[in-house]
Amino acid sequence: MDKLQLERAAALTAARYDHPPLAFVHSFGCQQNVSDGEHLKGLLAEMGFGFTDSAENADLVLFNTCAVRESAEDRVFGNVGALKNIKRERPELMIALCGCMMQRPEVAERIKKSFPYVDIVFGTGAMHRLPEFLIRRLEGGKRVFWDQPAKNVIEGIPAVREEGVKAWLPIMQGCNNFCTYCIVPYVRGREVSRAPERIEQEARELVGRGYREITLLGQNVNSYGRGLAKPYNFPELLRRLDRVEGEYRLRFMTSHPKDCTRELIDVIAQSRHVCRHIHLPVQSGSDRVVQAMNRHYHIDGYLELIAYAREKMPDVTFSSDIIVGFPGETREEFLETLALIKKVRYNALFTFIYSRRAGTPAAEMPDPVPAGEKSEWFRELLEVQQGICCELNEAMVGSVQRVLFDSPGKSGEGFLAGRTEGNVIVEAPGDRSLIGRFLPVKITRAMNWAMVGTILESR
Ligand code: 5AD
Ligand code: SF4
């Protein structure tokens, strides 16, 4: 990072306000987007900003946006619209928009024309340039619009992470897969991996600072290391990180089934810190639809992988992403998805109705199924999954689980919430001082969204 630039931005900001400046940073998207938000906050902190969680109190509002579905974009436009009155009352408020959505030229164009009170717009590839953009604007320059894509990972951007138990750790950026429905490769650019040494160093720092769960992030972690000067792969990275001493857990997301290998499963089975839970998005249970999505696997192969993992780790759990109503999907093909879900018995599903993204190949495919019918299929899917979750949860009653408590619970006064290694939410009565501890919990009852239990020992 350019120290002089950070200092210049801090001086200009200090001169603009008669009080220590506050920033409101809001991230709208996936974990990668949230992690980017933490780095943007890191930069703002270096420039002298404190933080607030409301736009009303802020001197700078930064919306870190998501482009994966239209609904996410609509939400951003709504939120930006709501800033108009605040800016009218306080013209010194700076408004900046960044993230995936801002990498789309048509969005930037719309902001330029219809939201004249927005000061700075930049995409995911230019996060590290925030100080430079602020300087340009604060020195009285024109509104800043920057849409150059990222070419490499910028190291050394500080981060302000949420205090607590869990930390995100990005290991790569971008995506090379071009699933036909997905906008990500167009907005985040090509896949670039961070050096394993850097990742290990950051993991050591996080463990040293007391984080108990580290989630490695990438659009497709299974292809980690492909472009590195010295070849390296994801199982090797996991093995390397697993050697870091301390009491902590490792998770990772997202895995692409086409690149998920038996070697990876063996590493998880042998590791001390890697959770026995794999998020393995299948998207659809129909081979025809999976091919039309350009996903490069077959359902048989996917099921074989799951069977292999269960053979090596009988307690392993799975979760997945499912898209309902991909263009041209028939009722029969949707029923194949339901059948797959019943076979795998995921302990969690992230379900989406297909959202058309201009510029992707699927946006050009005929899409004859009416929206109402897709919603009906979606409802059916949720119902089937809810039944499976209930059965899996009931089966846990009476067992003892190792739970990492991470926050106050929701099911009553004095409850704590945490997760099992398999990523199931557990609530139990306990003192807040137990947050951050791994504790054995006897499961006594299943609720819809979580398990309830009693902590067995907390000394
Ligand atoms: N419509 C609906 N869901 C989508 N996803 C990605 N693109 C779309 C889209 N156009 C879902 C996929 C992916 C998850 C992060 O978001 O299921 O795995
Ligand atoms: Fe999108 Fe597919 Fe890349 Fe995931 S792997 S970000 S779904 S293109």
Total tally of structural domains: 3
Helix content: 25-40%
**CATH homologous superfamily of the largest domain - what is it?**
tm_1862 like domain
Number of strands: 19
Overall geometric form: globular
- How many strands, which pairing sense, and closed or not: the largest β-sheet? 6 strands, parallel
How far apart are the termini? 44 Å
What fraction strand? 15-25%
Strand order of the largest sheet: 2-1-3-4-5-6
Which ligands, by name, code or SMILES, are bound?
5'-deoxyadenosine, iron/sulfur cluster
CATH class value of the largest domain: Alpha Beta
Average pLDDT reading: 95
CATH fold category name of the largest domain: pyruvate-formate lyase- activating enzyme
What is the correct CATH architecture of the largest domain?
Alpha-Beta Horseshoe
* Unreliable stretches: none
Count the DSSP helices: 14
Specify Rg, calculated over alpha carbons: 23 Å
Based on secondary structure, the structural category is alpha/beta
